[in-house]
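Tutorial handout. Part one gives the primary structure; part two gives the three-dimensional structure as tokens.
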Amino acid sequence: MKGWAHLLAAAPLTYGLAVGTGAPAWALAGGAASVLMDLDHLPDYVWWRGGWRGLADFFDSFHAHQVGRILIPLHSWELLPAALLGLGALGWPVWGLCLGAGWLYHLLWDLFTNPTTFRFYLFWYRARRGFLRSNLERSGAVRRP
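Part two.
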């Protein structure tokens, strides 16, 4: 999903969180979190490109499936249960629920709009394949569109 599409997709989440929580500032933070989660692509991009070539190139490179190494730790289903336990221990604060909703929303949008499978979003699955796109493509977790 391109950057502008993540921004558009975040609008209904932000609105829903604002209405549901009555906390528009935290709802905006949740919407922002759903977009900014893609910053975990940054180390993979910089390593592959050998430096920064701009925001447009950053999103275009991932959209075109050019980056060969895919670590992206925040794009991992395994972290959600840990986050839920942490939020529960903190008494379910509104800020945590909004940020967590942004995280989950991003993962779901990616799952349904990218040529990937559920297992692609499992950190251990990517790790077992060396975080290499070529290995993930061969395993069927990433498909060329």
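Part three, for discussion. Helices lie at 3-21, 24-36, 42-49, 55-63, 79-89, 94-113, 123-128, 133-139. The chain has one domain: 3-139.
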